[in-house]
Design goal:
globular, Arc Repressor Mutant, subunit A, two-stranded antiparallel sheet, 2 strands
């Protein structure tokens, strides 16, 4: 039973990362909380697109919305998610540095 729970947890994380916009949102929130309009502008997508992806990430349990008056600020649900993203990015670049040479050169991890 424990294996199934772990499988489902990793599947949710993998699903969240499977879309480039969601991955970019997570990477942005790794450095600081953000507001949907700011995230949309920074990533270059519509506010509706950001809203849909944030809903997905909330459903996966990876981000939370913190109400601030009439707005909501989004942040990672747990700081360990940011560390896991950094570790995963470092692993991918270590295993296959050619997959994204610009990231390897910048030492983004």
């Amino acid at each position: 039973m424990e294996i199934l729970v772990h499988r489902d947890a990793l599947s949710r994380f993998g699903y969240a990362l499977s879309d480039p916009t969601r991955a970019q949102i997570l990477l942005s929130l790794r450095t600081a909380p953000g507001y949907p309009s700011d995230l949309a502008d920074a990533i270059g997508v519509s506010r509706q697109t950001i809203s849909n992806h944030l809903a997905c990430l909330r459903g996966c349990g990876l981000v939370v919305a913190v109400p601030e008056g009439r707005r909501s600020r989004y942040e990672l649900a747990d700081l360990r998610i940011g560390h896991a993203l950094g570790d995963l990015l470092g692993l991918v670049l270590a295993v296959d540095p050619a997959c994204c040479p610009a990231a390897a050169d910048e030492g983004c991890c």
